[in-house]
Amino acid sequence: MSGGPAEELASRLEVLAGRPVAVGGLKRLSGGASRETWAFEADGRPLILRLDPPGRPDAPAMAREAGLLMAAAAAGVPVPALVDHGDALRGTPYLIMERLAGETIPRRLLRDERFAAVRPALARELGGILARLHALRPDAVPGLPDGDPLEELAALYESFAEPRPAVELALRWLERNRPDASGGRTVVHGDFRNGNLMVDERGVRGVLDWELAHVGDPWEDLGWLCVKAWRFGSPEPVGGFGPRADLLAGYAEAGGTPPSEEELHWWEVYGTLRWTVLCRNQAERYLSGSDASVEFAVLGRRVCEQEHDLLLSLGLTEPVAVADPLKGLDGSGPAAVPGPHDRPGASSLIDAVSAYLASAEPGDERLRFHNRVAVSALRIARRELLLGDLHWVAQRERLRALGCATDADLALGIRNGRFDDRMDEVVCAVRASVVDKLVVANPRHLSQPA
After folding, report:
1. What SS3 class is residue 231?
2. DSSP strand pairing (92-98 vs 45-51)
3. Is the pTM of this model over 0.90?
4. pLDDT tens digits for range 232-263
5. Residue 432 main-chain phi, psi, to 5 deg
C-alpha cells in the first residue's frame, strides 16, 4: 500500500473532519490471517485500518464488526474507538479505529518484567470483561451468525475430506458428553484470547478482532480463553495468566453465570478441536493454490500440535520431552552418500538458507515475521528428510495391526464404532502417530505443560 491508497485514506478522513488531514506512517502489521491490518497516523493521531483482502470482500461482516465495537463500548467492554467504516477503500470494505497503546504479543505479556505486577490480576479482570460482553442481547447487532457450534465445526472438518483419527476421538467425546445446561444465548466474541487483547501495566486496554463474533453460548468464550494454544508455554490455564478459579470469580462478580468445572472442560475440548480445524482451514488457502503465503503453508504442519493438545485435553496422553532430531547434526544430513549431484547436498542447502533467513533483519515487521515462519518451514523439511521414511514404516505397521490401510480407514472406523472394543489399542496408535508428526513439525510442543 503506497502513496495512492494513502491519498485515498486522507480524502476519506478529510470528509469526516471537514478539513485537510495529513496521513503518514502507513505500515502493514504482521499476523491477520483473514484481514489486512495497517497502522498509520492522521494529524498525529495513531489509528488502525482493517481491510478485507482483495478478491474476498465481505461488506456485511465489516459492518457487523463496526456495530460490535459500538455495542461493546456501550456495555463497558474496553475496545478501540470506532472512527469510520465503509464498503470501498482501495475497492474493498474497511474499518478505521483508534490505535491503543499497550502490548498484544503474548510472549511479552507472559514474560516481560514490566507486566509482572498486572499478570496475576488479568484472569479475574478478563472474567469481568466477558460478563459485561455477555450481557449484550443476541439482537444487539443485527445479522450475527447463529448456529449449533459442534455441528458447524464437524461440517467444516468434513469439507476437507481428510478424516483424522485424533479429531474423530474428540468429536466422539464431545457428542457423548455435551452438557445439559448452558449459559444462555448472548453475543459471543468468538476469538477472545491472549493475542487479541491490548494490555498495559494497568490492565486490559482493549479487546480486538471481532470478526468471528456470533450468537451463542457465552461459555464458549470462557472455554476458548482457556485453550492450551493461547497459554504460549505457560502452565496457567487462562491465557497463560492465571487459574480458572480467578476467571470464573471475575465472571460471577460482574454478573455472569459461570459454568461448572465439567461444563468449562467441555468447552475447552471444543475450543481445542475448533483450533485444530481452523488451522487446517487456513492451510487450505495454500493447499488449494489461492494463497502462496508461507504462513498458511506452515499452518498445515501445525495441525498436529492441536491433535496432541486434543489428546491431552481428553486425558489420552501426557507431555513428554523429545530431543530435536536436528540437534547436533553437522549439516551433511541424511543424504551424504555420494551421488550424481555436487556438494553441498539438499540438507546442507536447507541449513544454509535457514541460517540466512534467521540472521536477516529486514526493516519491515511483516517480512521479519515471514522470515521466522520460513525458517520453521525449512526445519520441518529437514526433519522430514531425516525421519520421514522411518515414520512411514512405523505408521504402516500401526495401521496394519488394526486392520487398516490408511489413516482415513482408522478415522472412519472410530466414527462408526468399529473399534469400540479395541479403544486402548486405537488410542496408543493415534498417540504414536501424533508424536511422530510433532517430532518433525515441532518437537518442543510435546513437552509443554498440559
Report:
1. coil
2. antiparallel
3. yes
4. 999 999 999 999 999 999 999 999 999 999 99
5. -65, -40
